[in-house]
Amino acid sequence: xxxxxxxxxxxxxxxxxxxxxxxxxxxxxxxxxxxxxxxxxxxxxxxxxxxxxxxxxxxxxxxxxxxxxxxxxxxxxxxxxxxxxxxxxxxxxxxxxxxxxxxxxxxxxxxxxxxxxxxxxxxxxxxxxxxxxxxxxxxxxxxxxxxxxxxxxxxxxxxxxxxxxxxxxxxxxxxxxxxxxxxxxxxxxxxxxxxxxxxxxxxxxxxxxxxxxxxxxxxxxxxxxxxxxxxxxxxxxxxxxxxxxxxxxxxxxxxxxxxxxxxxxxxxxxxxxxxxxxxxxxxxxxxxxxxxxxxxxxxxxxxxxxxxxxxxxxxxxxxxxxxxxxxxxxxxxxxxxxxxxxxxxxxxxxxxxxxxxxxxxxxx
Length: 364
Fold this sequence. Notes:
It contains 13 helices and 4 strands. By secondary structure, it is an all-alpha fold. A two-stranded antiparallel sheet has the order 1-2. The chain has a two-stranded antiparallel ribbon with strand order 3-4. Helix 10 (277-287) runs antiparallel to helix 13, helix 11 packs antiparallel against helix 13 and helix 12 (304-316) runs antiparallel to helix 13. The model is unreliable at 26-57, 211-228 and 357-364 (pLDDT under 50).
């Protein structure tokens, strides 16, 4: 799907405000010698101070015109910064399902259910999931995983309803609004509930540090346990369990902070509408660049939602302690590398779109 997303970005207009798309759709074709067709258009977006002749030799096709799946459900139609940085499960699975549920239930068309009500409700779902994940039974823990994934779907649903009510297409963060902060608060409470459940489970069922295989001196009868002759070492202390859980919680905080920060900055730089024609072309160039796609893809696999999916998968497979040990340090190293790469790319993009243009205009 990511390959299809990359091809869609390269081959089709990204925004409906694309000046070439607007020019093509509003062009009056005139016959020219040779039987071909060409046109001269005046586009205030492309040339604000004077008319700019634009020869259109072919019709510019929108992705919506060739997509097999209706754009209400197709996650590749509306390309935004947040959509490119969203984890795969939310982008390709939960977002289309949220659209279907909203179309059936009509949440966005009425006032009975608001996005904030959905946000508050999924906090209680997260608490129930955390309670089940703390259970000694693997079956209950797996039910808790399913419950928390349902909470994740509700988190996607409240965002979809909020955007639909404001007639916002695609995945975008309405930064600064009350709903933005309420949703963030409810997400934080849900994560806390999950991590408390993880801690309680590991505290009540501390993993062993290893085992020592002893040589059997007395023959073991068939009725005896197959573990005869094996002596386990001491259990992991509660202090060590708390350290592992706090370490992963800190990783979630770091990932969430970085992810939201880069969504806000890239969204402002690449989706800002009150820009000059040259800046617009630079925005499109960055959007289609391989460097930005790599930055967005790295955040796809290491944003806070992706880390929660990995954690839930380890709980479902009964490999929680092994996962926490594996990612305790490697996760921080990976996040810091991604943040460093994103910062360097961000500085280059900011200079490319805005500062370099200011310098050029001043010199002229």
